[in-house]
Amino acid sequence: MSAQTTTAAEESAGRRAPAPSAAAEAKQRLTSPWASLAAIVIATLWTIPTIGLLITSFRPENDVKDSGWWTVLKDPTFTLANYDAVLNDENTDLATFFVNSIVITIPAVIIPITLATLAAYAFAWMKFPGRDLLFVAIFAMQIVPIQVTMIPLLQLFVDLDVSGTLGPFWPIWIAHSAFALPLAIYLLHNFMKEVPSELIEAARVDGAGHVKIFTKIMLPLMTPAIAAFGIFQFLWVWNDLLVALVFGGGNLEVSPLTVRLAELSGTRDQDWHLLSAGAFVSLIVPLIVFLSLQRYFVRGLLAGSVKG
Q1: Contact (CB, 8 A) for 94 and 252
Q2: Which of 53, 128, 183, 193 is the most buried (most CB within 10 A)?
């Protein structure tokens, strides 16, 4: 009797303690000390060039040209003259282009997010003829290279603004928004579809219409996805060179930092002290944006990319 009781207890314990899954085993391997060490080594190697560029941006011109940045420990001499030169010197004047980048980037982020949230809600929770076909067509637009669309878009913008009264920045805003909308609609639509339909039905039973459901339910739930796409779009627009160069028409009055830095790298390729300082002037704003919203980035992208 005792042996039977022992056997039953062992079988019960075996049922309560199943074998670890493949995901659990993979997690255990990835959290091992060797995996952590490898991650630290990779992060260090990835960061060393950036550290070197940062040190170079604070070194005097003669020191930069005479020795490498790694010699700074022997003779640590630093100056802010490089940043003063790239921001205020009339030959560089990056402060003006810095403002241009902000003027270009903020509307180019707000416009596609606004349009994409409305379109994503319509595709996810409103029924109308041709909805699925239209959504597939929008998704397929991600495959079209932006280089193919530039000339037709530019010709369209020229025809729209024959009087020249719409201002110099609007072609860049519209171009960035148009190129961003397919991905934005796709990500936000998938995120909305994960919201339980029971929640929407309960709101409709209480008398809520589409506007109230969208503003009171969807927008608060979509914060991670909106923030994730906002970071993605901000980094894309801020670091863009091609779109700003084509749709800005080479006009320096509407050129962002990237255009000016590309020009400096071609005309002053020996002035490493200025180029390194200019690179960090361009880097600081995206870095602040990413660090302040990074907790939403991976969560929002994953929520809009996978189901279940």
Answers
A1: no
A2: 183
